Backbone:
């Protein structure tokens, strides 16, 4: 049938925006008028603007850089300091760029998109990315750190997805919208060029062209002293990549690893993470394995790999980060972290544990300046443990705390526990529960179940002051489900819910909900659920497939119309995850998890709020708009709020984030309590 709400896909059309403003007004009239909402929003904004937050930094040359937003600087400051200053309780910061002042001077609504500083030339030359309203598309402009000004006549790109990366102070690699035919069907760059200072963009040298059906193309320069290399990357689809070494003569040499593997060069090493089994050099390595080989030897045809990590049914690789002489390996075991230091030597790789944090916390560590030394940052965060940033040197004892987040909510009397639900096919699915000690199991506890379940993204414990203030301290139970489609148990956990197997993610999530009910933690009328992006698709399927399990649904920046998702913005890039709706055999399975098509008149759907952003140029706001319109037409208990700015993150500054989150939690309490 013809979609009667296609007109809502006109993102900035007058008629569509008029509809959006009317829905926003209805939602705010219902949820944003009382003193409870105002108090919650004020508290959340105070948390988001707090000067006691950790100003996370990254090192470039002698300085440590940070981007910071607060009440006085809602759009933010790009600033830097020294390690000696950073160690202080109140460091002295050197402001490099004030985005609020820039917006005022240029009459724009710039949102910070990041900065790349060129090492050569004394860390003076910078490429700064800015987006309008928080979109993925950015404007890139050259900036001079010495004069604190944008360079007139310097490297500059108009608004587009893609960007630039430095080669030297007079050359960059660029992948952007070069005009008709230069983008993929996913809306990302298809062509990479080498652009020299003084040239017009159209004069830049083409170094690689991908296919229109590829996801994206890029090029970059590795400036590691003694190991300088040029690379071109072509991404045919999510979790598929072709990496090429670009020689001094401009020749491209394919790095012959499986297309679904992740590969990169670090100094003399080629590092490979497998997503499927690989038989090479007379050996077979399993999916999820992490391998190392000598880069130059590999390019000459040798296939001598060392296995640095091999998964089990309970473990997966969470990450790996180099210092100058060591590799810090991060492994998840039943969604809990273990850190190990690996050191290459002539007789092989040695292993030693890296001091970390036990219990239900997420621990990560990464080299501060891998070109120079063995220092590392370690971050520890748990549901009830305020995030701590530590600084250490491999082989020199325990890392020492640098910064610690204050306790933004009172965690006294709360506890974290891990449970396992049994899914429809018998798979054990882990989930974390945060609740009061001695929780009364009478089914009357307001409970919020959060999930994602896609793109091999793992949901690990982390401190959320907002959840603590808005939910836990008010008596709510908070639950995070580690369902298939995620990466908690590596590639196998993700691949178990791909395409025609997508239903397993939704069965897993429903199983967690049913387990909470069976354990008498809650009942459907007290059970709310929340998710965004792919998690928004999860929410849509909870609404349409399991409406009897939930009393409230918060569906954020979602995919919902899976018949047209691949034709909207970046949607085509996700067909490796969901399938191609234009192929009849694939649509047969996709339609079973397409919420927009699966709405049925006469079904008692749970109270729902859809939340999105007009400036989301990744997941089209038309998904949420159309789902809302159709459910409203059916007489469902539904409301809608669309932030005009914000991109895929939903908000462009702290005030907007506080407003959006206060709406969501006010809705949950109003509905579940």
Residues:
């Amino acid at each position: 049938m013809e979609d009667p709400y296609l007109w809502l896909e006109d993102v900035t059309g007058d008629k569509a925006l008029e509809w959006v403003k009317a829905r926003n007004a209805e939602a705010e009239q219902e949820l944003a008028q009382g003193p409870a909402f105002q108090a919650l929003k004020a508290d959340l904004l105070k948390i988001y603007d707090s000067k006691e937050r950790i100003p996370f930094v990254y090192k470039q040359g002698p300085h440590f850089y940070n981007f910071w937003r607060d009440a006085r600087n809602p759009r933010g400051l790009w600033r830097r300091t020294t390690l000696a200053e950073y160690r202080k309780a109140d460091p002295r910061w050197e402001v490099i760029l004030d985005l609020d002042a820039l917006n005022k001077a240029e009459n724009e609504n710039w949102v910070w998109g990041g900065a790349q500083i060129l090492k050569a030339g004394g860390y003076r030359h910078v490429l700064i990315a800015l987006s309008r309203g928080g979109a993925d598309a950015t404007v890139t402009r050259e900036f001079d750190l010495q004069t604190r000004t944008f360079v007139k006549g310097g490297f500059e790109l108009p608004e587009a997805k893609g960007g630039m990366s430095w080669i030297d102070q007079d050359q960059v690699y660029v992948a952007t919208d070069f005009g008709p035919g230069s983008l993929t069907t996913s809306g990302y760059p298809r062509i990479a060029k080498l652009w020299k200072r003084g040239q017009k963009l159209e004069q830049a040298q083409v170094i690689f062209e991908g296919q229109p059906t590829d996801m994206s193309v890029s090029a970059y320069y590795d400036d590691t002293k003694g190991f300088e290399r040029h690379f071109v990357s072509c991404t045919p689809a999510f979790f598929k990549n072709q990496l090429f070494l670009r020689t001094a003569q401009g020749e491209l040499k394919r790095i012959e690893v499986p297309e679904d593997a992740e590969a990169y060069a670090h100094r003399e090493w080629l590092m490979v993470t497998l997503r499927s089994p690989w038989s090479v050099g007379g050996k077979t390595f399993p999916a999820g394995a992490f391998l190392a080989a000598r880069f130059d030897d590999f390019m000459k045809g040798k296939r001598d790999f060392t296995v640095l990590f091999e998964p089990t049914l309970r473990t997966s690789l969470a990450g790996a980060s180099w210092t100058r002489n060591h590799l810090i390996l991060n492994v998840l075991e039943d969604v809990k972290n273990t850190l190990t230091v690996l050191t290459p030597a002539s007789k092989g790789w040695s292993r030693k544990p890296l001091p970390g944090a036990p219990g239900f916390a997420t621990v990560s560590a990464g080299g501060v300046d891998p070109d120079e030394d063995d220092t590392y940052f370690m971050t520890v965060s748990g549901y009830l443990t305020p995030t701590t940033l530590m600084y250490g040197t491999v082989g020199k004892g325990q890392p020492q705390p640098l910064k610690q987040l204050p306790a933004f909510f009172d965690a006294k009397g709360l506890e974290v526990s891990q449970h396992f639900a049994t899914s429809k096919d018998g798979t054990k699915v882990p989930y974390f529960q945060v609740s009061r000690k001695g929780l009364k199991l009478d089914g009357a506890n307001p409970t919020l179940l959060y999930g994602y379940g896609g793109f091999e993204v793992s949901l690990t414990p982390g401190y959320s002051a907002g959840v603590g203030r808005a939910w836990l301290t008010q008596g709510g139970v908070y639950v995070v489900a580690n369902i298939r489609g995620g990466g908690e148990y590596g590639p196998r956990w993700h691949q178990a819910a791909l395409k025609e197997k997508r239903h397993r993610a939704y069965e897993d999530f429903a199983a967690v909900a049913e387990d909470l009910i069976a354990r008498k933690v809650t009942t459907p009328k007290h059970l709310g659920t929340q998710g965004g992006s792919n998690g928004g698709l999860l929410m849509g399927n909870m609404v349409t497939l399991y409406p009897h399990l939930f009393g409230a649904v918060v569906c954020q920046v979602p995919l919902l119309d899976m018949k047209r998702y691949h034709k909207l913005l970046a949607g085509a890039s996700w067909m490796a995850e969901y399938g191609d709706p234009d192929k009849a055999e694939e649509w047969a399975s996709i339609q079973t998890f397409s919420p927009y098509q699966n709405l049925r008149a006469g079904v008692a759907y749970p109270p729902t709020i859809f939340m999105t952003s007009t400036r989301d140029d990744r997941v089209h706001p038309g998904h949420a708009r159309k789902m809302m319109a159709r459910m409203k037409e059916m007489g469902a208990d539904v409301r809608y709020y669309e932030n005009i700015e914000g991109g895929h993150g939903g908000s462009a500054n702290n005030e907007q984030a506080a407003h959006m989150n206060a709406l969501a939690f006010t809705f949950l309490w109003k509905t579940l309590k």
About this structure: Residues 235 and 241 are 4 Å apart (CA to CA). Residues 6-46+408-672 form a domain with the Rossmann fold fold (CATH 3.40.50.1820). The chain has a mean pLDDT of 96.
